[in-house]
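Renewal narrative, Specific Aim 1. Our central claim is that a sequence can be written position by position from structural information alone. The example that follows is taken directly from our test logs and has not been curated for this report. It begins with the structure tokens describing the chain, in the order in which they were read.
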């Protein structure tokens, strides 16, 4: 620092009011401590709070050791850290400005832009278009090669049920494209005091980090996203306790829809635009089995007439047939049925098959008929049944094609004609449950569209997999994409 500048700084310190004016003039473009920055220890995935006082206000990241500290002025934790440990370069996590402490001047240097981009990745419309044809691998700072969008998510303790849903949703193109540009949802107004919009912001940040082509490491920790989930689900979903992915997905999609000011209208949010379909439900009440003959005869009354209701859906629940058991050749070991066809499960929604549903007092016979297919169809294959004592898992393997799945086969001819031939889907995400109902784990299979390569993702582990292997797994949740051509 020049002698003249030092005098100016002393003069400004003495006169108090002039500090800001003169410090603006003495912006240091070159800093002698830039070579002390250690990019290997920088991790911006965790909560932005001071490591000493745990406050979220005015937090700075030390670019030498990676820790977070509050403040910049004298007697603040960041200032004390810079003097005690000799770490001088700090980044304001809110304004994205760099400072040198304890000298307290702003550092402007283009070599720091990569750090700024890792903290807040920004995508232009042109870059988003390129994502669907990009086959180029990216290199992390430790030399690891990774494909943007195909990145492992850290399992903090027992949040693999969240990770698989977040991985599959990040491959849904309209949803991904919407959240990659913060401008799309930045101006949404929420009622005063309502902070559920934080869920939207955290999901947007996570999507941008997953698709970041210039990341420092080849994995992402969904820590802030999961904290928002714990908070807004009122601890219904936690990352220290295993839950059901279908419950989480249902809650998450509806919460995002509401936070984006969504209504009951089909195009009121990006969630409904992507996943909302419609069905017709035919319900007929059944007479009680222990009723006398006189009560059974009067089935023409209005009480037992068939009711028709229109219902929207975000996913379809497919019921697995109960496992018929076979004995082996020695008649000792019991072998469950090996597999069932996907179209056999989908016949439930053709409007032809009836199924009995029991409530505490009454029994109903229901038929389901799909009237409108969504651009992205989610299938939930119901594997778990609960009884009074325990949860039982149905291990039946579902045979399903990965490409060219025609859902038009389950539609009536009139409804199929309305879809104008656009009823062919392709699998883009597949969630699998392994193990017992109590201690099982989840993994996801996702399709990288540009390379048409399938990847298996289990927390931090990402490996390529053959599509033929996917069909042999115990599929639990599947996401299909409508073919536009």
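The sequence written for that structure reads:
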């Amino acid at each position: 620092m020049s002698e003249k500048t030092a005098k100016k700084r002393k003069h400004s310190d003495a006169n108090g009011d002039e500090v800001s004016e003169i410090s603006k003039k003495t912006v240091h473009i070159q800093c002698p401590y830039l070579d002390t920055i250690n990019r290997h220890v920088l991790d911006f995935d965790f909560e932005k709070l001071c490591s000493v006082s745990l406050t979220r206000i005015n937090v700075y990241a030390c670019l030498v050791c990676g820790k977070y500290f509050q403040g910049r002025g004298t007697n603040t934790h960041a200032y004390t850290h810079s003097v005690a440990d000799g770490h001088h370069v700090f980044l304001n996590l809110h304004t994205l400005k760099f400072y040198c402490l304890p000298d307290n001047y702003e550092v402007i240097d283009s070599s720091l832009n990569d750090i700024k981009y890792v903290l807040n990745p920004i995508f232009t419309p042109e870059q988003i278009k390129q994502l669907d044809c990009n086959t180029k691998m990216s290199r992390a700072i430790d030399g690891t090669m990774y494909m943007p969008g195909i990145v492992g998510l850290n399992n903090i303790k027992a949040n693999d049920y969240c990770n698989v849903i977040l991985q599959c949703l990040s491959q849904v193109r309209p949803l991904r494209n919407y959240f990659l540009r913060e401008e799309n949802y930045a101006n949404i107004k929420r009622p005063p005091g309502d902070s559920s919009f934080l869920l939207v912001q955290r999901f947007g940040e996570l999507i941008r980090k997953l698709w970041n082509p210039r990341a420092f490491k080849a994995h992402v920790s969904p820590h802030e996203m999961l904290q928002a989930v714990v908070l807004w689900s009122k601890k219904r979903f936690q990352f220290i306790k295993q839950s059901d992915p279908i419950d989480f997905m249902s809650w998450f999609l509806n919460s995002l829809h509401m936070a984006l000011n969504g209504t009951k209208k089909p195009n009121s949010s990006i969630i409904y635009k992507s996943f909302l379909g419609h069905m017709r439900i035919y319900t007929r009440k059944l007479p009680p089995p222990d009723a006398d003959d006189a009560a059974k005869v009067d089935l023409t009354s209005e009480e037992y007439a068939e009711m028709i209701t229109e219902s929207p859906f975000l996913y379809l629940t497919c019921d697995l047939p109960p496992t018929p058991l076979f004995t082996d050749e020695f008649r000792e070991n019991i072998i469950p049925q090996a597999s069932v066809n996907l179209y056999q499960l989908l016949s439930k929604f053709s409007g032809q098959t009836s199924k009995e549903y029991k409530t505490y007092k009454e029994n109903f016979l229901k038929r389901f008929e799909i009237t409108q297919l969504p651009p992205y169809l989610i299938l939930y294959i119901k594997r778990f049944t609960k009884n009074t004592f325990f949860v039982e898992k149905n291990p039946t393997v579902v045979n399903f094609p990965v490409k060219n799945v025609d859902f038009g086969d389950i539609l009536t001819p009139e409804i199929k004609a309305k879809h104008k031939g656009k009823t062919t889907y392709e699998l883009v995400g597949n969630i699998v449950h392994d193990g017992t109902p109590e201690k099982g784990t989840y993994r996801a299979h996702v399709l990288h569209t540009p390379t048409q390569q399938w990847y298996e993702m289990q927390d931090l582990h990402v490996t390529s997999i053959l599509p033929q292997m996917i069909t042999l797994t115990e599929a639990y949740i599947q996401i299909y994409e409508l073919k536009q051509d």
